Amino acid sequence: MRVDEFDYDLPPELIAQEPLPERDASRLMVVDRDSGRWIHARFRDLPRFLRPGDCLVLNDTRVRPARLFGRRATGGQVEFLLLDPLGDGRWLALGRPGRRLRAGTVAICGDDRPLRVHVEEVRDGGERVIRLEPPSGETVDETLQRLGRVPLPPYIRKELDDPERYQTVYAREEGSVAAPTAGLHFTPELLARLEAQGVRIAYLTLHVGVGTFRPVTVDRVEEHRMHAEFYRVEPATAAAINATRAQGGRVVAVGTTVTRTLETVAADDGTVRPGSGWTDLFIYPGYRFKAIDGLITNFHLPRSTLIMLVAALLGKERTLAAYREAVARRYRFFSFGDAMLILPGVAPHAGEPA
């Protein structure tokens, strides 16, 4: 398959630049996985489409304050995006301007009790190994909480008044450089309503990595390689999912990160095994799903691995047809945009066939 088969026309004004005042007020396109037909709803209508005995699986990762601004010791503004901790205050990071951040460069972040950043190595692909030197009496984590900012995707052009709006309400395990955005629509009240009607709620962790920001640069889908990301599935989560399947319920993943994690740890018969590790699973059309029946996800960038995953579940032509409908209906796209629910048997007689 060619990457350009997953392209579509998106007017720039449909890229959401900020979240709605109410998380669950976003729109929800509900697409039947069997027929490709759709209906339009609001996210707070989600309980209408789930049944007692279904299991909703969410990613409880939290976005770390991984963005640092500073200046080189010799002058000039710099920016770092922390990717993965390497131990002893060392991090794998992205930096700009890249031509000014050679090995041996020292940068200063903050004016009062500043953080010193030492560039130790420049790797292929532009990644850098840096060492963070916090002020006396402060740990690296404490300094990052004080000076770091939550990174936002490059298509969002302004800072948030409330950085917590780029966190899910159930975010607990810090370690991501981007939010699992399908979960941004949930409120504590909505989760309580779902539980009250008999929907199981389960959590896992996948720390979203730099692959979220990187475009697909190859021409052929099969040639793309995913950036590995850390995941953890607790025994209680695996047990809840396996019980759901055994009792005839549906497993609904909230986001592509949950999907990739569950498909990584699932056996061929769909049984989910607890554990932790790193996954670079790339899901695109032709993939046979083992662990999930449905998916809640936002509307993704053209030519991205995320829209390819959606197309693997729904079908490429149906996915692109649904996206054209979303554009025509003026849905909001990407991280702070509206959502899609793909589930078998939810809208067999409504909307138009994709």
TrEMBL record:
<protein>
    <recommendedName>
        <fullName>S-adenosylmethionine:tRNA ribosyltransferase-isomerase</fullName>
        <ecNumber>2.4.99.17</ecNumber>
    </recommendedName>
</protein>
<dbReference type="InterPro" id="IPR036100">
    <property type="entry name" value="QueA_sf"/>
</dbReference>
<comment type="pathway">
    <text>tRNA modification; tRNA-queuosine biosynthesis.</text>
</comment>
<comment type="subunit">
    <text>Monomer.</text>
</comment>
<comment type="similarity">
    <text>Belongs to the QueA family.</text>
</comment>
<keyword id="KW-0671">Queuosine biosynthesis</keyword>
<keyword id="KW-0949">S-adenosyl-L-methionine</keyword>
<keyword id="KW-0963">Cytoplasm</keyword>
<dbReference type="InterPro" id="IPR003699">
    <property type="entry name" value="QueA"/>
</dbReference>
<keyword id="KW-0328">Glycosyltransferase</keyword>
<keyword id="KW-0808">Transferase</keyword>
<dbReference type="InterPro" id="IPR042118">
    <property type="entry name" value="QueA_dom1"/>
</dbReference>
<dbReference type="Pfam" id="PF02547">
    <property type="entry name" value="Queuosine_synth"/>
</dbReference>
<dbReference type="InterPro" id="IPR042119">
    <property type="entry name" value="QueA_dom2"/>
</dbReference>
<comment type="function">
    <text>Transfers and isomerizes the ribose moiety from AdoMet to the 7-aminomethyl group of 7-deazaguanine (preQ1-tRNA) to give epoxyqueuosine (oQ-tRNA).</text>
</comment>
<dbReference type="GO" id="GO:0051075">
    <property type="term" value="F:S-adenosylmethionine:tRNA ribosyltransferase-isomerase activity"/>
</dbReference>
